[in-house]
Amino acid sequence: MASGSEEGGTGIQIDEYESLISTTDVELLKRAWRHEKAAPEILQYEGTLVQRIREQIQLMVETVEEFAESGIDPLTVSLYEMDLDRTQFLLRSYLRIRLHKIEKYMIHILKTDLWNRLSEQEQKFAKRCTDDLGKHLEQSVLSRLPDGYKSLLKQSTASEEDDMVSEPQLDTFVICKSKRDLGTFQLDDSGGVPVELLAGNLNILRYKSIKPLVESGQIDLV
């Protein structure tokens, strides 16, 4: 394919652009998006990857603008714009899914090690949401309840656990695929039939059973 400089004086080669959008970072973002979408709990924030993707998106925007101004075939430009739109969608959706989980489980996240999985901006968001929720409930409901029922975390002072706090359901079934042969696993303590995890095979298993394998990168969520 001809270079941009040969088709109107652009300084960036079209084949260089194609190499950019096919880099493994986009595939890694797809994987992070699939995992975050499928996992019941919030996963580790992919900060370095997100930063690289943002830099690539900026370069892609500049490249598309340069192509458009240089008189390159509009159909070719539109195809590159579609690639740009897909990458932007993946990034926005990845971040939006995480924010939804933070809103849903913010108190649980604040009181567990899940807090360390958030970005700095997400931590500020979670703290602000928790503070706002606490103030709202205190003013609208809790202040009107009898003593012993005014906790944001417990139904009453008689409760031994924080039974008013929503938690991710780790027993949720997920579809997963092994990257390589992992052998036979006893995935829970119920004494059920062991599962043989073979490369490329799809399995439907409880998330909590394969959580360590997901976190170590040996299994992908689908």
From TrEMBL:
Chief subcellular location equals nucleus
Can you list the GO cellular component terms from the UniProt entry? Answer: GINS complex
Which segments constitute the GINS subunit domain?
Answer: 75-139
Please name the InterPro entries in this protein's record: GINS_A, GINS_bundle-like_dom_sf, GINS_Sld5, SLD5_C, Sld5_GINS_A
**DNA replication complex GINS protein SLD5 C-terminal domain span:** 168-222
Q: Which is one Pfam family of this protein?
A: SLD5_C
Q: Which domain of life is it from?
A: Eukaryota
Can you supply a Gene Ontology BP term from the record?
Answer: double-strand break repair via break-induced replication
Gene3D superfamilies, per this entry? 1.20.58.1030
Q: What family does this belong to?
A: Belongs to the GINS4/SLD5 family.
What does the UniProt record say this protein does? The GINS complex plays an essential role in the initiation of DNA replication.
PANTHER family (alphabetical): DNA REPLICATION COMPLEX GINS PROTEIN SLD5, SLD5 PROTEIN
The name this protein goes by in its record: DNA replication complex GINS protein SLD5
Source organism (scientific name): Liquidambar formosana
